[in-house]
Predict the structure.
Amino acid sequence: MTPFNAILVATDFSIDGNNAVRRAALLAHQHGAGLHILHVLKEPACRPLREWFTPLADIDLKAALARAALRRVAVEIAGAYDVTATVEVKVGDPLQALVQAAAHVDLVVLGRRGHGRLGTLRVGRTVERMLRVGRQPVLVVRKPADARYRKALLALDFTPGSDAAAQVGMAMAGGARTHVFHAADSFMESMLRRAGVERAVILDVVAREEAGTLARMRRSLARLGVDTRPLFFSVGRGPADIATLQLARTLGPDLIIAGKNGQSTLGAFLLGSVSGKVLAESACDMLIVPPPRATPKAAFLLNRRAPHGKASAGTHWMQDLPGILPRLPY
């Protein structure tokens, strides 16, 4: 399974931010990982006006106060979780600071904030932007971190992003009771019903399809080195986001594990057709894992375009972890 050697957590000292810090500290303790706590002060948009109307030392004073608060948090973390954390205060754009700080870590932990109209939950703006452009796995924390994860829901769709999510998610879930789920397309069943096929025949087709999908799920995880014996498997029907949320409400997991579609918008997690609705409406923490930068086929196409057989520069965090993916020449 994938180890976590370095964890970054960002906090704004809100309740959600504090929950994220405690969850990150608990994970750092579990995995023996280093922990870095970041707070970003957003600089006023019009700096000349700030310098004219307010003292120049205002932002420095706020940074000093934030740094002192982070040190107190680090002391609390050391006593509660036996983890020595480093702290940092940055001034600037929160997303840019977060992306820069996350460049050399294995996991980013953020608190989920924000409410939409009519009181419905939505994802905080910085979290949404980080999920869209980040290249590291992101754990979005909603619940207090009172213990290790006890129940996890892993959604599979047999894509590279789904495989990456399975590997990282199983490492995070640890000994949690894990349920593996796939939302199957009901197109064939609908076609048979429209064609007037007998109900018994339709049920037989559906049962065979589900049995084949369950076997494929087990093979997929076994190929990744996951012990499938303690896991629970099921296949759902209908839109993937709705099916996933319904199962989550039934099982009551404290962690949902999903893949993300590269540089896509927030709503394009690789769970069949699961959208950001799962993150926005679920009542638990959610781990979102980006896929490898390129599949072997995509890397081959890139190499064909590169002059003199030279591959494109850049590596992905997954390539630095042994036993996960072959090192691709891009």
